[in-house]
Design brief:
- The structure is a single chain.
- The chain is α/β, with parallel strands linked by helices.
- It has a single domain, classed as Rossmann fold.
- 49% of the residues lie in helices and 13% in strands.
- The two termini are 18 Å apart.
- The mean pLDDT is 93.
- The structure holds adenosine-5'-diphosphate and the ligand C[C@@](O)(CCOP(=O)(O)OP(=O)(O)O)CC(=O)O.
- The site of ligand DP6 has 11 residues, from helix 2 and helix 4.
- The site of the ligand C[C@@](O)(CCOP(=O)(O)OP(=O)(O)O)CC(=O)O has 11 residues, from helix 2 and helix 4.
């Protein structure tokens, strides 16, 4: 059941996309447009990494940055995260949204990876949820540094949302700046409508 009486969030924008499709790039732009005081970026991988680091005695800061360190542990983090999600599909979604920034009216969830991630926010926030898929051609992703990695790019962590989800918005991020700006204009408009309506 959606928490329709709650005053915040007024809009919950759930982003998904393949590695190097440009999720971070696009969500940063969107947050800047909406204002950091009004819009909080929440990463589902944040609590995952934090719990994983605690249980395995690892350096959380290094898991959070884009280093080789993270890649060393990626496969095991995926496996470990899957075990947790199997016990409770909303586990990381719930933890990620428990932060001081949750008082802001707009939430951007940056990295949904499984159908249960999208479903969690749709079930909880109903019409306030907007699901967004960021897409870029393989060639473009390769130019941004993507290299196919077996066990990662062919696993649920990367492919769980390839099919079977009806996205509210699809953003094509192939590198054409003006086209991206137009798509962000539209998305910003939909978000502001939700902010104004409720
Ligand atoms: N539209 C764009 N214009 C210029 N650079 C981009 C664009 N989209 C992504 N990038 C760059 O490509 C790289 C990968 O993007 P990133 O947002 O980190 O991808 P993801 O979060 O999906 O893995 C980053 O260096 C980012 O700055
Ligand atoms: C174990 C992960 O959460 C690692 C996610 O790391 P990032 O959130 O840093 O994302 P990338 O852009 O793919 O490098 C994946 C998962 O299956 O949950």
């Amino acid at each position: 059941m959606a928490d329709i009486d709650a005053e915040v969030p007024l809009a919950v924008v759930i982003f998904s996309g393949k590695r190097k499709s440009g999720k971070d790039f696009v969500t940063d732009l969107l947050q800047r447009r909406l204002g950091e005081d009004k819009c909080e970026l929440m990463r589902l991988s944040g609590p995952l990494k934090s719990q994983y680091a605690k249980e395995h005695g690892l350096d959380l800061e290094r898991l959070l940055d884009a280093s080789e360190y993270k890649e060393t542990y990626r496969l095991d983090m995926i496996r470990w995260g899957e075990e947790r999600r199997n016990q409770d599909p909303g586990y990381f979604c719930c933890l990620a949204t428990r932060c001081p920034g949750a008082q802001k009216p707009v939430w951007i969830i940056t990295d949904a990876r499984r159908k249960t991630d999208v479903q969690y926010f749709r079930d909880k926030y109903g019409t306030r949820a907007i699901s967004v898929r960021v897409e870029a051609q393989e060639e473009v992703r390769r130019k941004r540094g993507w290299v196919f990695t077996s066990g990662v790019d062919d696993a649920e962590s990367e492919c769980g949302l390839d099919e079977g989800v009806t996205w509210d918005v699809i953003i094509t991020n192939d590198g054409e700046h003006s086209h991206l700006m137009e798509q962000l204009d539209q998305l910003e408009h939909s978000i502001r409508e939700k902010q104004g309506k409720q």
